[in-house]
Amino acid sequence: MPTSRPVPRIPVEERLFSLVLALLATESGLTKNEILSTVQGYRQRYAPGGDNANLERQFERDKDDIRELGVPLETIETPGQAGNNQTLRYRIPRGSYELPEDVRFSPQEVTLLNLAARVWREGSLSSESRRALLKLGSLGVTSDEPVLGYAPRVRVRDAAFEPLSAALEKHVIVRFDYLKPGQAAARRREVEPLALFQHQGRWHLYAAEPDTRLHKTFLLRRIVSPIELTSRGFQPPAEDPREQALRDLEAIWESRVAIVEAVPGSDAATRLLKRRGTTRVGNDRLSLHYADPDIIADELAGFGPEVVVIDPPQLRDAVRERLERTVAEHG
Amino acid sequence: MAKRAKAPAFHAQDKLAFLLSLVPYLMDHDRVRVPEVAKHFGVEPEFVRDAVRLIGVSGVPGETSQYQHEDLFDINWDAFEEDDEIVLTNLVAIDESPRFSAREAAALIAGLQYLSSLPENADRAAIASLEAKLSRGSSSQPSPVAVEATETDATLALLRESVEKGVQVEFDYSNSAGHAERRKVDPLRVESMDADWYVRAWCHLRRAVRTFRLDRISNPVLTDEPITTHAKDVSLPDTLFESSADDLLVTIEVAESALPLLADYVPDGSTLSRASEGRVRTTIRVTHYHGLKRLIGSMAGVARVLEPEQARAAVAAWAREGAARYAD
Is residue A195 classed as helix, strand or coil in its secondary structure? Predict the structure, then answer.
């Protein structure tokens, strides 16, 4: 920029903070030009009557950053001048910015929330929960330390997780290739993402097919292409899809039962008996529930000779094939 | 308290979230020292000082658009610089704490669901009301992300009782080699990884800190013997799986898509090389081949051991014995 005056470098957080303060303080809103020419961090780089294209782009990015933090940035059109960007006014309405007065937390609740935040150690959820804790800290409530310390972790390792969670938030249709076990080639899917959820330690996508309106559950680890976000939006369902997602998969889990024989005292016997829903049926026989035939087959194959599948026959075959394959690949 | 996981660096957005959170906190605390604030928010004291310095010179353009003195926050600079004490003397624009973003609320809600089976959280109604509060305190509908509450059995409640009463807990433990032993332990910390739960404890039999899988623990009971090692006496690492000099290194070939599943077994600085289309070669670290054979056995067609020979043989023998059970 050809100016004679040196432009002082204002840190990003100072510019963002000043923008939020300015927009909170205004009732009637500020135009983009008012913001760029007066707000700290912009005004230093503003060229009166000149080309401010770079600064305008900066402002667009800053708006996104601020909105991502949950700060409601509102635009008001000047009556009679709809669609005119020059007269569009920006403000942050206090009512939707401030935490409602009845949302306060007890020390026990803060302890729980601290623990809940610690569940996320990686990916964007870890940054989100860290910010949530800063905001929680704002209320000044001190938490109690639990009697016995906890270090919970939920992993978010699937590459599809982040793009899908962005699509969930924008309510846009996504496309991806999905490889079902036993099929030779992946098939292209196009769905409305409704919820992301973890069941039995694995991340799933709950989604609706735009044409059939059928709800489907996809395992994230079987998505074999990058997630493509389309520009086509959809109306999210009125009711909370999370419970329905878990309920649908739970119904499948409930309906699928395997009978296995586990060597008494073995690791398989101990751990399978501890699985939710497992019951003893006869001497060394256990009845267990599962949601996905391929995942349970993998798990049971890992127990080697400690377990034999009795029923259903397809699962028996699947475990046997896996064991034989492992033998062949390690011979 | 347990050492926190090494957090990623704070970005401008995080700093903004802190500034917007710190102001209302300071409004409620007339006079507060920097270390106390740092401890409360779980951040470094210097991070607090930087924020206070910035707040002290920030404000709104005001009527003149010139950031006049009355348009700015002000602090007692002497108290700040000499006594490390924060006193806000002029306030602008901010009255209250900010709302949570949809994703922030979603992260906490999903975390709460995951933990809802802990003995601390026996009161389901309280959890539900907490979730509702988070939703109300969110700037828009929290994103639909959920984690199934994992079934935790009575063992967890007993471990907690053991620490509460200060007595050792005793149980049968079968390790991955299949040997069961009666152990007496002092519980130090309960840990989890997705649907799997563990307890880190001082093991009186081994005279060392050990990690026990909860689903391998049977017949737990409280003893009369007092706990000798407390959580504060030992420094526990953040990673669940600790490496030791006795670890065995194994070279494997694995489908690239399954690599994240093995991330915890891959030692720092290990190299990856492409084996064939979609498959990579890497090194993993295991404590013994009993664990390895189970792991590789559950990844048929996805991962295979290349070397050492002994490791290959252990996996092959395990699978062969397993397959033999289907022979008749």
Answer: strand
CB contact under 8 A, B114 and A119: yes
CB contact B301 to A (< 8 Å): yes
Asked whether residue A3 is assigned to any structural domain, the reply reads no
pLDDT digit string, tens, across residues B255-286: 887 887 787 788 777 788 887 888 899 999 88
Alpha helices, DSSP H, located in chain A: 12-25, 32-38, 53-68, 94-97, 107-118, 123-137, 161-170, 241-255, 267-274, 293-302, 313-330
- Residues A90, A113, single domain; the answer is no
Structural domain contains residue A1: no
Domain with A299, as residue range(s), is 256-330
Nearest to A330 among B5, B29, B305 (CB): B305
Inter-chain touch B98–A137, beta carbons under 8 Å: no
Q: How far B260 CA sits from the closest chain A CA (Å)? A: 6
Q: Please name the residues in contact with B1: beta carbons below 8 A apart, sequence gap of 6 or more.
A: A145, A149
ipTM of the complex: 0.88
Please check whether residue A139 lies inside any domain of the structure.
Answer: yes
The shortest CB-CB distance from B163 to any of A97, A105, A148 is to: A148
Between CA B186 and CA B165 the distance in angstroms is 11
Sites in chain A below the pLDDT cut of 70: 1-7
